[in-house]
Amino acid sequence: MKDSCSEFVMSMTSASAALQSAYLDELAYWNPEPPPITTLFACLGSTMVENFDSTQCELNLSLFGLIERAMQSNDQELIGAVATGTIEAIVARWSDRPGLKDEILKALGPISRLHAQAWSDA
Q1: For residue range 41-60, what is the model confidence (pLDDT) as tens digits?
Q2: CB neighbours of 103 closer than 8 A, spacing ≥ 6?
């Protein structure tokens, strides 16, 4: 995994016990091989949605801020993994929970929000 992708994962998982647990579960599932990056990032996005209501608002904003910073980077691998893994998993999961879409769209930054809306409308 590229350094920027590893840094993103470490930033996300160090901020949230739920994300840390999901990350470790994903590593164990794929062991001895590393999980595909998009699959790993999707796991993080799904976990964020699952725990959105129980996560403190500040932490949610911080996590969505990390997603936005990744989407603003110049690293195309990181952008692609966050967009097709994390954000698209978030969109797929919010449909399971009525009313959550609007809350998440408010928390996403402008670039992340555009991708989420485009994927949601597809």
Answers
A1: 999 999 999 999 888 889 99
A2: 52
